[in-house]
Amino acid sequence: MSGLQVLQALQAGRIERSGIAHTMPMQLTSVQQGEVRMTVTPDARHLNPAGMVHGGFAATCLDGAAALALFSALDASTPYATVDLNVKYVRPLVADTDYVAIGRLLEKTRSIGVCNAEIRGQDGKLHALASATLMIKTA
Questions:
Q1: How many CB atoms lie within 10 A of CB 98?
Q2: CATH topology (fold) of 3-136
Q3: Which CA distances in Å does 69 have to 12, 15, 44, 45, 116?
Q4: Strands 80-89 and 26-32
Q5: Would you give the end-to-end CA distance of the chain in angstroms?
Q6: pLDDT tens profile 10-20
Q7: Inter-residue contact 67 to 82 (CB < 8 Å)
Q8: How far apart, in whole angstroms, are the C-alpha atoms of residue 22 and residue 1?
Q9: Whole-number Cα distances in Å, 13 to 17, 44, 63
Q10: Among 7, 49, 60, 79, which one is most buried in terms of CB atoms within 10 A?
Q11: CA dist 83 to 75, 97, 98, 133, Å?
Q12: pLDDT over 80 (residue 139)
């Protein structure tokens, strides 16, 4: 089975979402090879002491989008892990608001995947973006 097939099953609800997708509400809305889109929705659990959505929420969603973009181009049994995640925060996220997280695979070699990810509001405005390098474990 390919990673793309697993993600398509996940999107269709034939596979249960992972624990992190419940903790950081993320729902796949579009999957194709090399690109994923998710609805992400911070809530009261993700607020910092100042009452703002913690930056870790955006970072986790960006990392997830980038990783799934790579996974969509791998065999489902191929291990991979984030090596580097560089995040830029542009606008704050607001609790109980839906955003779109988009992950794109830019380049894949035998051992490395390079991806970009972004979070946009429903109005299309950019809230956060990231570049990620992921290690692909080869036999």
A1: 12
A2: Thiol Ester Dehydrase; Chain A (3.10.129)
A3: 17, 18, 28, 26, 9
A4: unpaired
A5: 18
A6: 999 999 999 99
A7: yes
A8: 24
A9: 8, 26, 22
A10: 7
A11: 19, 30, 28, 6
A12: no
Look at residues 137, 95, 98 and name the one whose alpha carbon lies nearest to residue 119: 98
Maximum distance among all Cα pairs of the chain, rounded to whole angstroms: 47
Per-domain boundaries in the chain: 3-136
Query: 104-116 pLDDT, tens per residue?
Result: 999 999 999 999 9
Give the whole-angstrom CA distance, residue 103 versus residue 64.
8
Q: Give DSSP secondary structure letters for the chain.
A: -BHHHHHHHHHHTSSPPPHHHHHTTEEEEEEETTEEEEEE---GGGB-TTSSBPHHHHHHHHHHHHHHHHHTTSBTT--EEEEEEEEEE-S---TT--EEEEEEEEEE-SSEEEEEEEEEETT--EEEEEEEEEEE---
Amino acid 138: pLDDT: 83
* Other CB atoms within 10 Å distance of the CB of residue 133: 16
> Are 39 and 100 contacting, i.e. CB atoms less than 8 angstroms apart?
yes
Instruction: From 135, 128, 137, select the one nearest 59 (Cα to Cα).
Output: 128
